[in-house]
Automatic annotation (TrEMBL):
This is Methyltransferase type 11 domain-containing protein. The chain crosses the membrane at residues 6-28. One of its GO terms (molecular function) is S-adenosylmethionine-dependent methyltransferase activity. Keywords: Membrane, Transmembrane, Transmembrane helix. InterPro entries: Methyltransf_11, SAM-dependent_MTases_sf, Thiol_S-MT. Residues 76-173 form the Methyltransferase type domain. CDD domains: AdoMet_MTases. The keyword Transmembrane helix applies. The keyword Ligase does not apply.
Length: 245
């Protein structure tokens, strides 16, 4: 099995050889962050949205339950990207957008124009592991979807989410994860892993993110495993849910 994985990895790397060469020359990473990845994310989000819309509607259905005593709902999103989640947030929600990549402006502007029921408070260029610009205990909800696969430190990101949440606030998530190790999906993930990570800006296919969530210091965790039909991709296994501080 290991030999087969290495063989098919080499075949895939050969197909992606131009990208490996551009990476070696230091050209791919800046091109990916500025042009390719924002373009890809906007179009991939549209496809993912069609497949996961019902799951997201159900996930965010109880967002209003976490309004503060003043009636406001302050929400911080880690890895906002093109704003694919805005449509699911309740009217009047005060949104702080954060992303480590500042090159999503065009897609983000289009999403904002479509979702004028929200109040957009701040836009921060920040990694999920370092939200120092956000005061501790200052938000009611933190949202993170299809982001923990790419952060440098999953535990560090969850620690920051806990820090900025007020007591009783909630962390919402929807993430693709590693497949069952006995499945062909896992075999496919193992083959794609190195090239996928290079092409898609650090996205890791084999993270067991549910374990990080279980080990974080949340007082309550509501989590379920599901499969989202994304044919010919290695990212069908997902987890979805929310955790309470």
């Amino acid at each position: 099995m290991e030999a087969s994985i290495l063989f098919f990895r080499a075949c895939l790397a050969l197909l992606a050889l131009p990208i490996y060469l551009l990476s070696f020359l230091g050209i791919w990473q800046p091109f990916c962050k500025k042009i390719f990845f924002p373009f890809f994310i906007e179009h991939f989000s549209a496809v993912h949205e069609k497949k996961a819309k019902k799951q997201k509607q159900e996930l965010f259905r109880n967002l209003p339950d976490f309004r503060s005593s003043s009636g406001e709902l302050k929400l911080l999103e880690i890895g906002t990207g093109c704003g694919a989640n805005f449509q699911f947030y309740p009217p009047g929600c005060k949104v702080t957008c954060t992303d480590i990549n500042p090159n999503f402006q065009q897609g983000l502007s289009r999403s904002m124009n479509k979702n004028q029921h929200l109040h957009y408070e701040r836009f921060l260029v920040a990694a999920g592991e370092d939200l120092h610009q956000v005061p501790s205990g200052s938000v009611d909800v933190v949202v993170c979807t299809l982001v923990l696969c790419s952060v440098h430190d999953v535990n560090g990101t969850l620690k920051e989410a806990l820090r900025v949440l007020r007591p009783g606030g909630a962390f919402y998530f929807l993430e693709h994860v590693v497949a069952d190790r006995s499945s062909w999906k896992y075999f496919w993930q193992q083959i794609c892993y190195p090239t996928w990570k290079l092409v898609f800006d650090g996205c890791c296919l084999t993270r067991e993110i549910w374990k990080n969530l279980e080990q974080a210091n949340f007082s309550e965790l509501n989590l379920q495993h599901l499969s989202i039909a994304l044919p010919w991709t290695p990212i069908q296994p997902h987890i979805v849910g929310y955790a309470v501080k």
